[in-house]
Amino acid sequence: MKTLATIVAVSALGLASQVMAAPLHMSIYTQGNQAQIVVTEDGQPASGIPVTVSGVNAQILKTSEQGDVVITNFDDNARSYTFSVQQPDGSVTETKRFLSRQH
Q1: Could you tell me if 85 and 39 are in contact, meaning their C-beta atoms sit under 8 angstroms apart?
Q2: Which of these, 27, 28, 33, lies nearest to 72 by C-alpha position?
Q3: CATH topology of domain 23-99
Q4: What is the C-alpha to C-alpha distance for residues 78 and 100, in angstroms, rounded to an integer?
Q5: Residue 7: left (phi > 0), alpha (psi -120 to 50), or beta?
Q6: Whole-number Å distance between alpha carbons of 12 and 6
Q7: Could you please report the per-residue DSSP string of 16-81?
Q8: Cβ-proximal residues to 74 (8 Å cutoff; 6+ apart), any chain
Q9: Taking 50 as the threshold, does the pLDDT of residue 17 lie above it?
Q10: Dihedral of CA 65/71/61/37: which sign?
Q11: Whole-model pTM above 0.85?
């Protein structure tokens, strides 16, 4: 029983450290051929944070003072984009979204 309690405690500490290791939160809102990426830190907009956008080509954009970046798919084809932000500890938060083609 003592071993089980120890395993639970160690697991809880590991999970807590992973949660604390990701202070940057990325939210993505899409509509048609556009995506708005919002990066926050402790609930506040995070300005100047590099956001890597991978689609046809990779590009790195920095968030505005409001903590956001807007991406538009100008291609004639709909495609999937990958958005990523590097955390202060070096880990990467990554999310994929599908953007429709330009109309």
Answers
A1: yes
A2: 33
A3: Immunoglobulin-like (2.60.40)
A4: 4
A5: alpha
A6: 10
A7: HHHHHT--EEEEEEEETTEEEEEEEETTEE-TT-EEEEESSSEEEEE--TTSEEEEE--SSS-EEE
A8: 33, 102
A9: no
A10: positive
A11: no
Whole-number pLDDT of residue 10: 52
Question: Closest Cα partner for 37 from 91, 102, 94?
Answer: 94
Element (H, E) at 9: helix 2-20
* pLDDT value at residue 61: 96
Model confidence pLDDT, tens digit, residues 28-75: 999 999 999 999 999 999 999 999 999 878 999 999 999 999 999 998
What would the two tokens of residue 63 be?
A: 């968030």
Q: Give the whole-angstrom CA distance, residue 33 versus residue 51.
A: 18
Instruction: Report in angstroms the alpha-carbon separations of 70 from 3, 13, 23.
Output: 50, 37, 22
